[in-house]
């Protein structure tokens, strides 16, 4: 018997943000009063299969899950949760630049440049 997975019934571990990530999200959002938060999603791309996408949003989708830390809001489409559940998001300095870094326990492989991952 095949059962259909109901994403609404799943208990998620969720996502966490470091203080640095939350501060940067708040900084991005407060630069434009129309912004509501950031949406984290994934896209099929890169040499490993998936890449993370961060977008400023003016309105959340009804199916988005909301994660909040220090007043920063991160919206995640329900359908991507199976691929990123348990991820910790940080904002770190690499060389002369700063970037969001994703620590995804479900990611099995990453490409050499670090731009994509596979499950």
From TrEMBL:
Annotated InterPro entries: ATAP, ATAP_core_dom, Fe-S_cluster_asmbl/transfer, FeS_cluster_insertion_CS, HesB-like_dom_sf
Entry GO CC: cytosol
GO BP annotations, alphabetical order: iron-sulfur cluster assembly
Residues of the Core domain: 15-115
Any GO MF annotation of the entry: 2 iron, 2 sulfur cluster binding
PROSITE patterns (UniProt xref): HESB
Family: Belongs to the HesB/IscA family.
Family matches, as NCBIfam families: iron-sulfur cluster assembly accessory protein, PRK09504.1
Protein name, as recorded: Iron-sulfur cluster assembly accessory protein
Gene field: sufA
